Amino acid sequence: MSNPEAPHRVVVVGGGFGGLQAVRGLRRAPVEVTLIDRRNFHLFQPLLYQVATGALSPDEIATPLRAILKRQRNVRVVMGDVRRFDLDRRSVVIDELPNGDQGVAIEYDTLIVAGGSRYSYFGHDEWQRFALEIKSLESALAVRRRIFTAFEAAEIEQDPVRREAWLTFVVVGGGPTGVEIAGQIAELARDTLPRDFHAIDSRHARILLIEASGRILPAFPARLSARAARALERLGVTLALDTEVVDLDQRSVCTRDPDGTTGHVPTQTIVWAAGVVACELAGALAAATGTEPDRTGRVAVREDLTIQGHPEVIALGDMVSVHDTTGKDVPLPGLASVAMQQGRYAARAVRARLRGERSPPFRYVDKGNLATVGRARAVADIKGIQISGTLAWMTWLTVHIFYLIGFQNRLLVITRWAFSFVTRGRGARLITGSAHAAAEADVVSAAPERKNTG
Amino acid sequence: MSNPEAPHRVVVVGGGFGGLQAVRGLRRAPVEVTLIDRRNFHLFQPLLYQVATGALSPDEIATPLRAILKRQRNVRVVMGDVRRFDLDRRSVVIDELPNGDQGVAIEYDTLIVAGGSRYSYFGHDEWQRFALEIKSLESALAVRRRIFTAFEAAEIEQDPVRREAWLTFVVVGGGPTGVEIAGQIAELARDTLPRDFHAIDSRHARILLIEASGRILPAFPARLSARAARALERLGVTLALDTEVVDLDQRSVCTRDPDGTTGHVPTQTIVWAAGVVACELAGALAAATGTEPDRTGRVAVREDLTIQGHPEVIALGDMVSVHDTTGKDVPLPGLASVAMQQGRYAARAVRARLRGERSPPFRYVDKGNLATVGRARAVADIKGIQISGTLAWMTWLTVHIFYLIGFQNRLLVITRWAFSFVTRGRGARLITGSAHAAAEADVVSAAPERKNTG
Q1: pTM for the full model?
Q2: ipTM summary value
Q3: Where in chain B is the domain with CATH 3.50.50.60?
Q4: Does B430 sit within 8 Å of A62, measured CB to CB?
């Protein structure tokens, strides 16, 4: 099918950590790369929670893909939404192209799919209407809008019951994102905002972190989980462990404790950080192979990250489950470092195949696991060495600055962090993104209650 | 009506340049100040065009009002939309409060209204649907989205006619904002983007600046207008002087030249920077006094900025026309410095009145007029001294850094500018703000044409 004279065409879907590493790993290969992403930028997701709490500006953690790749001559970037794969014709079908075109097919000789993950609501998709996520820049800005609007609303609210609901922040999910966002909201309430408001004391805000298992940060050693829990509690976060969310709506969360008692928490701000599943691309890819994704939506790949029966199709990152030769699922954490290593592996595998060689199976090299818990506190598990406190935080800081793309972004982020550290302020706490949309959303959530209470 | 024991209540509507100066000028006065603004931040509008072209991040030119005023104990900040004034009851009525409340009345002893201006479409309000403005952070981000989407669209567009339309950028209005945005788009196309795209040469982008009068920057001396015009043309901007916009829609602008010939420019990006009129608050204030606003929507005030018959009501900035004792309109430019001087004057007037003194009439001290024309070029008219080129640009730079609020913002902006100056890059060129909304807007604008051409 492919012309032996023409260069080998590699299509990479997704410009996240994995896809970008794959593209860069092919920079000296005799191939023509097409990188397709819905967005025109690479997003440094691990710092998205800082955008959600006004510590960083969106532009500081995102870099235009074209700017990153401008020196790589063998790549073209296409902005568009991949909806369908046709493995027989070796093409991907893109919709939502910037010029309005739909259903444009792009052919490949090798396909690399790196679409990432999204949040799942455990079969309760209706919860998504009421809860906020921290996944895209837009969703992080929606969280920022909601958090700061909640304090504004509490400031003018006369009814003490409603005021308490505005000052209650519920975070669902005790993984790194949930821990980080809960810690940041607590610091906002305790350190940044007290002098900003006169009618309310922002330090009375209640931050509730709900985790279904028995401890937060379940991917970390138990000792570090316990330390993180203590650090969060010192910041004023209330932990609800072994607690399930059984329902949530516009103005409350219903929970079930381990002993079966149900709780009802009135709140206007629910951040959902639980239940990660594969993105829609995994389903599309599974459909193209005639298989079913697993229960978290992931598509199965072999140890060399290729799809069974399609050695020319590689999938990687949070959207795949790697199966070894016996068919057993190889457990891998949902970390940026996994995706990055897999992206580099994919590029090596393509280069090897062009030389007629076979690749050894992918092996994840565990570089460690990090999570911050507020200002100057973190936990780190690096090759079995467990550290916490300021040293872990400095490690976290260094790693994140190092992996952030673009010297300018690094400088801007360091500037903001230095300011926040010294002044305990946050410069980026604007309520933006359609002021009216924000107001309407809040009216929607407040108005029905209004009628009931008065 | 007011209790002699209670402190004098000053309500300031609008946290822009004028309102903020009024609030700050009252920091040591024995008054209770309430500052009402729809937004929770002060926006440094003179740099908004840099957000629109990806040179600065929104958070860098906006500062939370509460952060600015946290040390001023006699002020409370209320986020809400003032819809109506009741001068007899001495109250303002607010809608869209963050907790969903509507129609909340706040009483005053002195009222200061500083609502600013908005764009007008010369009776063609339907044009607003198709043209973009640079007035709020959201609208600047919409411009950014449209500009960078246009280049993305051109890159994949196969049809040469449609590609040319994507690469045509029309700016309507040759005042400072129009000149600045046209210059910035030209620099983007010429310096920043050429290496980012492979299929198109971004330097072939056409930037058309349409001005109804005979020269750009009509508020400047003719010599500086001519210099700015030459600088713009060197950047590749096409000037259409003495040219009127007679119609515009989703994909074109129709113009009429001085000799009566009409032109038709196919384009996907129209930035409207012409025809400033007073904001809606001026109409509401005029209605409350039983008068009519003038033809640009402004409410008339006396030489001491008070409303006729209401010495307790002050209005200022772009939304007012100042009338001298003979009833003649005192011409004042629509500049931040006018609003700031009037804001400080208003605070002095309130303090004087509390001491039982009368204020002398407001007098504008002309500090000069500045406009940039791309990188390292500007024109300045300072107390009759006319400068242009690099010296003017350095003056512009210094003034803008100086007036930007917040030391952190200054540092971040300097960092970004230094980077842009050296690398000719722009860090903040993300296509954000509902990717799907952006895509849909472009689909809407492209789809009908699609049907005609293919």
Answers
A1: 0.92
A2: 0.90
A3: 8-38+80-119+277-354
A4: yes
